[in-house]
Amino acid sequence: MTDRVSEASRRRGYDPAAMEGRWQEQWAESGLYKTDEDLRKPKHYALTMLPYPSGDLHVGHWYAMTPSDTRARFMRMQGYRVFFPIGFDAFGLPAENAAIRNGIHPRKWTLSNIERMRGQLKSMGAMFDFDAEVVTCEPEYYKWNQWFFLKFFEKGLAYRDEAPVDWCPSCNTTLAREQVVGLDRRCERCGTPVIKKNLAQWLFKITYYAEELLDFSGIDWPERVKTLQTNWIGRSEGAEAVFDIEGYGPVEVFTTRPDTLFGATFFVLAPEHPAVERTTTPDREAEVREYVESAGKMSEIDRTDVTRRKTGVATGAYATNPVNGERVPVYVADYVLMAYGTGAIMAVPAHDERDFEFAKQFGIEIRTVIAPPGWDGGELAEAYPGEGTMVNSGGFDGLSAEEGKERVTGWLEERGTGHAAVTYRLRDWLISRQRYWGTPIPIVHCAACGTVPVPEEDLPVRLPEDAEFAPTGESPLKRDEGFLYTTCPRCGGPAERETDTMDTFMDSSWYQYRYLSPHYDDGPFDPAEGEKWLPVDQYTGGIEHAVMHLLYTRFFTKVMRDLGLVDFDEPMVRLFNQGIILGEDAEKMSKSRGNVVNPQEFVDRYGSDALRCFLMFIGPWDQGGPWDGSGIGGVARFLRRALSLVAGGDPSGGQANPDDLERRTARTARKVTGDLRAFRFNTTLATLMEHTNYLLAVKSEVGEARWAEAMNVFVRLLAPFAPHHAEEMWTLMGEKFSVHERDWPEWDESLIQEEEITLIVQVNGKLRDRVTAPADISEEAAKELALASEKVQPHVGEGEIKKVVYVPGRLVNMVVA
RNA sequence: GGGGGCGUAGCCCAAUCGGCAGAGGCAGCGGACUUAAAAUCCGCACAGUGUGGGUUCGAGUCCCACCGCCCCUACCA
């Protein structure tokens, strides 16, 4: 069906795909999209998120990139020098999986994908400057990942620690965080639930910047992202208190409620807590060991299932409460997480739901220490986590909970058994991957010297090209002797290289800087270029990166600032999150679901301008939504009609007033400009369509000079959306190449005003008549005019007019008793 | 359990400060062109805004309570 559409169009000489191909060639030849270096103009660094070279551009890429391109083009025409680069996030698991499955080397697979995608990107007709292209799997790029690693290491921001990682027991390998999918945390590749595994891992100390990362004052980002990051960082204020475990020593706990310390009737350690083993009494040993082991084996899903009954066992040990010297039993229970706070808690069942549940199950005393309003002194039916008055708390009785927090904390500090503390939910960023296709971590392990960083001048540590791939789950680097065995840079003795590679989020944390000078040798980027372009002015991308990439890149920029590389605090001044385009079935597009929409079909049939405009037209950009290709024909028709304004074609014969030409042109320019500033592409397109319909209707009735002027404005307004069609029209109009180098249209505000307006006449808020009046009508005259309306009379009748509401230029409302 | 978003015509979506519910498009219907169809062009119709209250001269818009759908998060002490 749709084929017939384009076939018929071609027969009539409209072949958008061919026309667009011609312009793309000419743009490339003329270097139209080489970055403007005219420093007299204000800068605008526009950036769209770094794509992964999965093989083919899908419609989601178009949805993310073409509005971004439209906006960049708009800025360019508004007189900015615009930098709009593109590149490829070329390391990562899919390439390695392809290698294991098909025996293709990840590098070969990746580079051929890039080759294909580069061609497809060009068919988009975007103004990307391909001279700035960055490919993160090239040594000239990842060398600087390693350089950053060394700088982080020097500053103590990179360290090695044993940490639990997500491990897929079926693929026998660790997974990147983004490859653990769904609430039930399954491996994306095979669907097996992941487990935790302890491995020595490299981490970046992002928590060092936790406090600063909570400060968004320098940036104009969506509230949503700021909230997500704030929650992710999860700052909690409270106190740390020291409990003494008999036969072991002091163990710190974190609490947000030091005011409830007197209500602590038991003490809980996480199963992984080092104190568990050493405090368990001999008679409890067997049971505790069994519990700890089963907790360790349990999948994350089961372990964190909130609906599950609380479990745990007594260790036989006792801990001493620092405020009252009371001995309370120590339990080990998996509802306490090693990863948060200190991995141990004081349990206050009366005022914490979880502790309450546990105490009920184990028959532990529930002691009220904060009296709820109107409390009768009896036992609480459920935990009371709210505010109230302190009771059963020794000398603190009678204080409000709020005051109690401070006083108890002070009391602890005086005695050296505690202090005020802030805890963050944010964990340090685990960057180790037991994978081949990533940046080698530039570290050497020497039996004599220990962990030794590779000297800067020896960078890059290259990935060996001849690695062998087998589905053993072991990185090929571990079996690559040429890579593995080396000499210690410190003592010259025999040593082994670190075989872990870096998380690919490392690559995307600073790529915006590399774009400035992708081949620069003396640093991650050329500072002279940085002066010209940094920081990024407008970033666009999906919200799914809110707490990963967008947090990491903020962290990186702060470290770069502290290294003296940049002099600002935030990488991207403004951020816009587009929505996600779903499959026709309203599900996320994925190969396995078979609902992936291939843009190429639509480009071939309707042209890239049509697809660009269609994606911008279907709704607000931040909303996303399911793909419904049935509407693209309408957008294609619009472009064809627009072109026919200059290329001849069917006379319209529609009815419209040719006298309005200048006013409507000015009004269209104003609306398009305003909506484009605000990223409202859908309404902008609607405005351009409306204007096209009008122009077609009056074309034959307008004189040549007026027509030429109106078209000149219209084509420039169209240019950011449909760059090829606009260029074609511009040329057909006899204007000089290229429309994309022209200025954005201005408009005369005074032209927009109508001389006559339609006044709405209401009686008791109900529409009763419309009257035409001069635009500058006075309030008195408007009211008189409304009263005089015959249609109004029956509704007013004998009733008394109590009040007349007048909204200038809009309506008169008569209130009748 | 917590946080966020969205409900307007058959469908996708518009609607400035609260002021005519409709800009645009899809699908539909009628007409023109055609031997016919497609394409193209012209025109037409279609909802009272998820539900129930409230504020107001006036509510799609503001407030309260529900219903439905979607996304994120998850024992964070």
Topology:
Layout: H1 2-11, H2 16-30, E1 43-48, H3 59-77, E2 81-83, E3 87-88, H4 93-102, H5 106-123, E4 134-135, H6 139-154, E5 158-168, E6 173-174, E7 180-181, E8 186-187, E9 195-204, H7 210-213, H8 223-233, E10 235-245, E11 249-255, E12 266-269, H9 275-279, H10 285-297, H11 300-303, E13 313-320, E14 327-332, E15 344-347, H12 353-362, E16 370-371, E17 389-390, H13 401-415, E18 418-424, E19 429-430, E20 432-433, E21 443-446, E22 450-453, H14 476-479, H15 481-484, E23 485-487, E24 494-497, E25 501-502, H16 505-508, H17 511-514, H18 527-533, E26 536-542, H19 549-562, E27 572-578, E28 581-582, H20 599-606, H21 608-617, E29 625-626, H22 632-647, H23 661-677, H24 681-698, H25 704-718, H26 723-732, H27 749-752, E30 756-763, E31 766-774, H28 779-787, H29 793-796, E32 801-807, E33 811-816
Parallel strand pairs: 1-2, 1-26, 3-4, 12-14, 26-27, 28-29, 30-33
Antiparallel strand pairs: 5-6, 5-9, 7-8, 9-19, 10-11, 10-13, 10-18, 12-15, 13-14, 16-17, 20-25, 21-22, 21-24, 23-24, 30-31, 32-33
Helix pairs in contact: 2-26, 3-21, 4-5, 20-21, 21-22, 22-24, 22-26, 23-24, 23-25, 25-26
This protein binds one RNA strand of 77 nucleotides through helix 1, helix 8, strand 11, strand 15 and helix 12.
Describe this structure in words.
- By secondary structure, the chain is of the alpha+beta class.
- Helix content is 36%, strand content 20%.
- Among the domains are: 160 residues, HUPs (Rossmann fold), CATH 3.40.50; 188 residues, Isoleucyl-tRNA Synthetase, domain 2 (Alpha-Beta Complex), CATH 3.90.740; 63 residues, Ubiquitin-like (UB roll) (Roll).
- Helix 3 packs across helix 21, helix 4 packs across helix 5 and helix 21 packs across helix 22.
- The longest helix has 19 residues.
- The protein is globular and about 100 Å long.
- The protein starts with a helix and ends with a strand.
- The N terminus is likely disordered.
- The chain binds one RNA strand of 77 nucleotides through helix 1, helix 8, strand 11, strand 15 and helix 12.
